[in-house]
Amino acid sequence: MPRIQLLLGLDDAFGRAIARGVIRYAKAKPDWKVYGYGRLFTGELAQPDGLIVRAETPEESERFSAMNIPVVDVACAYPGTGLMEAYNDDEETGRRGAAYLRSLGFQSFAFGGIEGTLWSRRRFQGYFEFLHRDFSLITQFERPLHWWRDPALDRTDLKQWLQSLSRPTALFAANDIVGLRIIESCKEVGLSVPSDISVLGVDDEDLLCELADPSLSSIRLNCEGIGMVAAELLDKALNQQSDSIRVLNIEKGLHPMHIVERESTQTVIHSDPLVVQTVTWLRANARKHIDVRDLVINLPASRRTVEKRIRKALGCSPRQLIEQYRLEYAKYLLATTNMPLDSVAQSSGFTVIQRFYSVFKKSEGCTPAIWRRNNRKNP
Q1: CA-CA distance, 38 to 155, in Å (whole number)?
Q2: Of 264, 238, 111, 225, which is closest to residue 175 (Cα–Cα)?
Q3: What is the pLDDT of residue 319?
Q4: How many CB atoms lie within 10 A of CB 55?
Q5: Cα separation, 250 vs 82, whole angstroms
Q6: Which of 6, 99, 318, 369 has its CA 20 to 30 A from that of 197?
Q7: Where is the domain boundary, 231, 248, 265?
């Protein structure tokens, strides 16, 4: 009977959701015995046959790597650990954050990151790569994870940096803790969120995001899916010959799920009033059965003018913008409800089911049914 130890840190939504994914996988493995004692190495460790860990320091990574058993890391904070890895696709997370913030009409962008961690660097890389063709300068502020976590530390340098940003600015935070500290610091120096600084986090820590003032918009990750993938990788490793365990270097990344919009990004910023009117109208109406003609009827400009100015400002056509809003809502429904696929399409604004499938597969690389199976939040 394989003994599987979880060292994840169950004090936040990320660790708990990954644990749920492992448990889902383990239910199909009646011979598995799963233990969970938190993140750190303790005397309670029960001579496991395999580990699923969240290694957040180089020392933890080295210690796990030196063990003569299969180990899967879900933090993936440092390169070259030699551990198997199941992780969120952080570059794609950065790209989606950039696409969303740009769709609000911003022309100035910033990033708040976790110093020295691979996943934060990758999120910035995706964010930067999406934006850099049109915006050459993206300012960033980084500090170690413990600096962001400790509520008692002096953050004068963060406040000074925030005050130095042009206004309005869209700020992508590497995770929700960073987003929370930024919102707190903005308030302390008299910066308005979202009108001066709009803030988007990552992880969608429900309580943390809702209790922030204003509430924090965030990218929800497929943490349960990561847990299932971690368990699957560990299962494969356990079935290998013992002398091949050390040469295993398997990794698998999963796309983030969708953006949960809250007060910290509920604004439309652009010097072109036509762009502001377009985005405002589409955010209110995209899920209705409308098309570009309906949009133009409600705007003081011709279709050609609308097409030209939206493409120049946002890097996409009005039709693509409509479908972007619909797709985000469709993913929300797929992840949180049992609604049939045709009902998901209709509720999201897609009147033709084939178009829904086409747009979805082009964006996500899989069908809605497969995406739902891999991303269900509470199945």
Answers
A1: 29
A2: 111
A3: 95
A4: 25
A5: 9
A6: 318
A7: 265
| Tokens read off for 9 | 């840190």
Q: Give the pairing type, strands 258-260 and 217-220.
A: antiparallel
> What is the tens place of the pLDDT at every residue in 207-251?
999 999 999 999 999 999 999 999 999 999 988 744 444 444 566
Same domain, 134 and 236: no
- For residue 180, give the nearest of 156, 203, 213 by alpha carbon: 213
Q: Is residue 65 a contact partner of residue 18, using CB atoms and an 8 Å limit?
A: no
Share of the chain above pLDDT 70, in %: 93
Average pLDDT of the residues in 294-318: 93
The count of domains in the chain is: 3
Cis peptide before 168 (omega within 30 of 0): yes
CATH number of the domain enclosing 331: 1.10.10.60
Residues paired with 172 in a beta bridge: 111, 200
What is the SS3 assignment for 229?
A: helix
3-state helix, strand, coil in the chain (%, to 5): 50, 15, 35
The three-point CA angle 217-106-207 to 5° equals 5
Among residues 57, 67, 66, 74, the alpha carbon closest in space to that of 8 is found at 74
Dihedral angle, C-alpha 271, 273, 274, 276, nearest 10 ° = 80
Shared-domain flag, residues 94 and 212? yes
The pair of structure tokens assigned to 302 is 């011709």
Cα separation values, 329 from 130, 283, 326, 333, 343, Å: 22, 11, 5, 6, 12
- Across the chain, what does the average pLDDT equal? 89
H helical segments located in the chain: 13-26, 58-65, 90-103, 118-131, 145-149, 156-164, 176-188, 206-211, 223-238, 273-285, 292-297, 303-314, 318-336, 341-348, 353-364, 368-375
257 band by pLDDT with thresholds 50, 70 and 90? confident
Q: Which domain holds residue 231?
A: 3-88+223-257
